[in-house]
Automatic annotation (TrEMBL):
Protein name, as recorded: Signal recognition particle subunit SRP72
SMART domains linked to this entry: TPR (SM00028)
SUPFAM superfamilies reported for this sequence: TPR-like
Coiled coil stretches, renumbered: 96-151
A GO BP entry: SRP-dependent cotranslational protein targeting to membrane
Phosphoprotein found in the keyword field: yes
Family matches, as PROSITE patterns: TPR
Length: 673
């Protein structure tokens, strides 16, 4: 009975294996997996069945389950049997370090393991080892995957150029595919050859369209989706060239396509945030969500991820999220303690909170802990001190940067700052130290050295240090005795200190004959530009001189033109003191007569009652006050009906109305004598 049962099991297993084979050839791995499971029910330790199950799970994308099967049956599925499948599952699950250990522990390095080894090294950003691995593969392989290996090799070269700033070597690859063209363009971007890179990308776009248009099943949307990464790189070049509007437009077009590559979307969103800077922060806050998508950390390089985190911290600072900014910058600093940006972001946030002293202390601590990066930190500290008005302390910080003390830019900045503080001695000391450095480390006749001596001499002459300036000018003249400009400066300086010495040195000047210029004076005077130049007066003799002197006397006798007087002016009559006031504001103004039969209409405020003409007639009441007060007199407020409306009342005091009167005069107020 047992023999019969074993035979039946073998017959059943044979049928199942046929089913597995047929499904595998048809690509139906889900159905094949069912048959494999049935085989394992018969014999749970069947090595071949377990291998087939792992392969089926991998083909169906169930990498975690496949790795679980491998780890559960370690006694049966040894590393020699299942090394590639295990390493591949770890690679796809982004366990890159584990995949590397699995590959290295395999007893036999098959071609499949070597291919996977290259991919693992690329993900670990070990580009030198990766380049060696792919070169070995291309050299020792001859199959239909040669083009893919060359593409991977060019990708490694592009990564070296972009992230490690290594000048790529010419691999001699024929750029017949758009992938190769794209990688070549990336390598050129890393070298800063943006125009050449743009041409390569345009060629890659053309090749991509040609390649995909040959397939009738590919739609225009599919082509645009494939071109998205090429267009994204084009936009990046535009951004580097300063064409931010064009770059922003292209970035937004790519986002509208909704590509499935989360890495591409994250990079584009980050680049848009860098264009926005501290403007349009609402758009930046929306875009930053794309950088937080699941799986982004496995699609981008470490430097790309680091740049995105830096921009998140800056965005938090721009949106006044101080706690979030501190949290992100502290996290970045813990990941890269030697990196400058996290500390600079923290210092910037402290400055926004008006804590300048604390920001300077933070920068000083970092400079003490990381002397290699101290120069950039100290420059920032000096900038903060200048913002606080502590120019002298800023100068002390700048002078502590030894590797920059002798640089012309640093010397110029220090001299300017010391001059602003009127500390001329310290400024001259900066010049002296820089000149001494060049004397010790470079040839004395170097252009920078001579330029510093000349600038020092000019500075000393400007601030009255003539003897010190003469010493510098003599040094310059010794270096180049044919320098007429330096000699002229030296003579000019000596003329203020030692005129006799200046006369002696003047003998070294070239004669006027050697310095004469062949100039056609008549042509120069008749030229177009000469008509706009006032000629200098020369020596005059005889009649011309007398004529000129006579003209000068006439000019001296010229008097100021008298002002015009009015036609009815009478010098015997005293002018009206109120002539500058408008007629309505004069004390004797009685208003215009509007006819005997018509009642006069009052000009009071809205709602006031109108009185009869008899009450407004000033001739009937001898004691009635004038309707318009004289300048300087007080205004009596009455409760009777003949009160003066507010708009016609004059201010109480004359001094208070003087300015107003002058303004009205300028506007052309009517008046008379």
């Amino acid at each position: 009975k047992m023999a019969a049962a074993a035979g039946a099991a073998a017959t059943a297993a044979g049928g199942l294996w046929s089913e597995v084979n047929r499904c595998g050839q048809n690509g139906d791995f889900a159905r094949a997996l069912k048959s494999v499971n049935k085989i394992l029910q018969i014999n749970k330790d069947d090595v071949t069945a377990l291998q087939c199950k792992v392969v089926c799970l991998i083909q169906n994308g169930n990498f975690k389950e496949a790795l679980g099967v491998i780890n559960t049956h370690t006694k049966v599925l040894t590393s020699d049997v299942i090394a590639f499948e295990k390493a591949y599952c770890e690679y796809r699950l982004n366990r890159i370090e584990s995949a590397l250990k699995t590959i290295q522990s395999a007893s036999q390095q098959t071609d499949k393991l070597k291919e996977l080894y290259g991919q693992v090294l690329y993900r670990l950003e070990r580009y030198d080892d990766c380049l060696t691995a792919y070169r070995d593969l291309i050299r020792n392989s001859q199959d239909e995957y040669e083009e893919e290996r060359k593409t991977n090799l060019s990708a490694v070269v592009a990564a070296q150029s972009t992230w490690e700033k290594v000048v790529p070597e010419d691999l001699g690859l024929r750029e017949a595919t758009y992938e190769l063209c794209y990688n070549s363009a990336c390598a050129l971007i890393g070298q800063g050859k943006l125009n050449e890179a743009m041409k390569k990308l345009q060629k890659a776009e053309e090749l991509c369209r040609q390649s995909l248009s040959e397939d009738s099943d590919v739609t225009e949307e599919d082509i645009e989706a494939e071109l998205a990464i090429i267009h994204g790189q084009m936009a990046y070049i535009m951004q580097l060239q300063g064409r931010t509007e064009d770059a922003l437009q292209l970035y937004n077009q790519i986002i509208k396509l909704k590509p499935t590559d989360v890495g591409l979307l994250a990079v584009i969103a980050n680049n848009i945030i860098t264009i926005n800077k501290d403007q349009n922060v609402f758009d930046s806050k929306k875009k930053v969500k794309l950088t937080n998508a699941e799986g982004v950390e496995h699609k981008l390089s470490k430097k790309q991820l680091q740049a995105i985190e830096f921009n998140k911290a800056l965005l938090a600072m721009y949106t006044n999220q101080a706690d979030q900014c501190r949290k992100l910058s502290a996290s970045l600093q813990s990941q890269s303690p030697e990196h400058l940006l996290p500390v600079l972001i923290q210092a910037a946030q402290l400055c926004r909170e008006k804590q300048h002293a604390k920001a300077v202390g933070l920068l000083q601590d970092f400079a003490d802990q990381h002397p290699a990066n101290a120069a950039e930190i100290k420059l920032t500290m000096a900038q903060l001190k200048i913002a606080q008005g502590s120019v002298t302390k800023a100068c002390m910080i700048l002078r502590s940067i030894e590797e920059l003390q002798h640089k012309p830019g640093m010397v110029s900045a220090l001299v300017t700052m010391y001059s602003h503080e009127e500390d001329i001695d310290s400024a001259i000391e900066v010049f002296t130290q820089a000149i001494q450095w060049y004397q010790q480390h470079q040839a004395p006749k170097s252009p920078v050295h001579l330029s510093l001596i000349r600038e020092a001499a000019n500075f000393k002459l400007k601030h009255g240090r003539k003897k010190e300036a003469i010493s510098d000018l003599e040094e310059l003249w010794k270096q180049n005795p044919k320098d007429v400009h330096t000699l002229a400066q030296l003579i000019s300086a000596y003329s203020l200190v030692d005129p006799e010495k200046a006369k002696v040195l003047s003998k070294h000047l070239p004669s006027s004959d050697t310095m004469s210029l062949k100039v056609d004076v008549d042509a120069l005077e008749n030229s177009h530009g000469a008509t706009y130049v006032r000629k200098k007066a020369g020596k005059l003799t005889g009649d011309n001189q007398q004529k000129e002197q006579g003209q000068g006397e006439v000019k001296k006798k010229k008097k100021k033109k008298k002002g015009k007087l009015p036609k009815n002016y009478d010098p015997k009559v005293t002018p009206d003191p109120e002539r500058w006031l408008p007629m309505r504001e004069r004390s004797y103004y009685r208003g215009r007569k509007k006819g005997k039969k018509k009642d006069q209409v009052g000009k009071g405020t809205q709602g006031s009652t109108t009185t009869g003409s008899s009450e407004l007639d000033a001739s009937r009441t001898a004691s009635s006050p004038p309707t318009s007060p004289r300048p300087g007199s007080g205004v009596a407020v009455s409760t009777t009906s003949n009160v003066i409306p507010p708009r016609h009342q004059k201010p109480a005091g004359a001094p208070a109305t003087k300015k107003k009167q002058q303004q009205k005069k300028k506007k052309g107020a009517k008046g008379g004598w």
